[in-house]
Write a structure and sequence with these properties.
With about 260 residues, the chain is an alpha+beta fold. It is about 35% helix and about 25% strand. The longest helix is centred in the first third of the chain and has 26 residues. The termini are far apart.
Length: about 260
């Protein structure tokens, strides 16, 4: 399997789909549906996913799909695409960036290709296993911030699962008071892409889905960073919690996560 070639093909598909989305919105506006409390979908999410699925089926025909809007839901024996057609739908509804297309290819239990296309800035982040991470074709690397005190921290707020809010608010208070600051953009895929590019030094969030984080995981690791769950383990794609850092401040950051968010 030629991961580099697949990554290039996925990147081209993401860009083309992004252009179609912009055109579609200009011509048709938005129709908004609710999937649950503060959980929205538009006809453009579904339109984007149909385009992506059709293109990805041609790139790796034997692969299955884990897709947010369930255009395809079957699992492949070895390969599976993990697709978020618009990550940051609420931002997209309000015409407020960032919002992104996120695509990952898993081989067995390992992500081997990841592409995140942030539409508003036309920034395409890509990575393949062993090949490094890139922004619009140029290599990117995580930051060199050595401590939490020197870090810009990214996070995401829960929108319908508030079961862990006490611990989360303790962590948020700590990082707000000791770091350079905390930012919440509203797109986990973009948060992880920005961490890979060194714009953020660390990102954490709970109650995320595989399609929110899968592409970002390989971006961060191929850019030289670290990814784990809140216990420091490897269950971060399907485990609904994640920390992605530049690696340098990882242990210090994790000490606070374990103290506040691990029962």
């Amino acid at each position: 399997m030629d991961y580099k070639l697949i990554c290039q093909q996925v990147a081209d598909l993401a860009r083309a789909t992004g252009e179609q989305l912009k055109k579609y919105r200009e011509e048709n506006g938005l129709e908004i549906e609710s999937k649950g409390h503060n959980d929205f979908v538009t006809q453009m999410d579904k339109f984007s996913e149909r385009l992506l699925v059709a293109g990805l089926e041609k790139i790796v025909p034997e692969a299955g799909f884990i897709a947010e809007e369930s255009t395809r839901t079957y699992r492949g024996e070895v390969y599976n695409w993990i697709v978020d057609p618009i990550d940051g739908t609420t931002n997209f509804i309000h015409s407020m960036p960032p919002f992104a297309i996120s695509i990952a290819l898993m081989e067995a239990d390992k992500v081997v290709v990841g592409v995140i296309y942030e539409l508003s800035q036309c920034e395409l982040f890509s990575a393949w296993l062993g090949g490094g991470a890139y922004l619009n074709g140029k290599p990117i690397h995580v930051s060199t911030a050595p401590t939490v005190e020197s870090a810009l921290v990214a996070t995401g707020f829960p929108y319908n699962n508030f079961a862990r809010m006490d611990g989360y608010m303790k962590s948020l208070y700590h990082f707000m008071t000791v770091s350079h600051g905390v930012r919440r953009l509203g797109s986990a895929a973009t948060d992880m892409a920005y961490t890979a590019a060194g714009r953020f030094d660390v990102f954490y969030e709970y109650d995320l889905k595989p399609y929110d984080v899968a592409a970002g995981c390989i971006l961060v690791t191929e850019a030289g960073g670290k990814v784990c769950d809140f216990r420091g383990g490897s269950d971060y794609i399907f485990g609904r919690e994640i920390v992605a850092s530049n690696g340098h401040l990882h242990d210090q950051f994790m000490a606070t996560i374990k103290e506040t968010l691990v029962k």
